[in-house]
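I hope you will forgive my troubling you with a question about protein structure. I should value your view on which stretches of the chain appear to form regular backbone elements. Here, with my thanks, is the record as I have it:
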Amino acid sequence: MNRSLKALIAASIALGTVGVATAASAAQPVVIVNPQACDYYAQNYANGHVGPEHRRVIVGTLLGAGAGFFAGGFGFGAPGLGAAVGAGVGALAGAAIGNPQWNQAYNAAFSACMQGYVLPY
């Protein structure tokens, strides 16, 4: 082979390698650590793994209203008042218990996001 053909082949290989390296580096995502974005991500992560944050409050309200309806209706003749009182007590109990699994998933996802990691869904 003559010298100019070898130089042309070497140059094309070098440019091809630079092009592949540039394309590979362009495919890497840019991660910007933002507390608001991490909060949104952590909420979605926790909701996806555990369920809605206020599930126990909602369930407590519904169970309390049902129990209050029957207790108030049969015991005191006031099912509406019993349902209202039962719903209030159930909501307070659900809020007091909270959702520790949701909080744990949220905290783990938020911490990972703030460090630049993404937890797998």
Q: What stands out?
A: The mean pLDDT is 78.
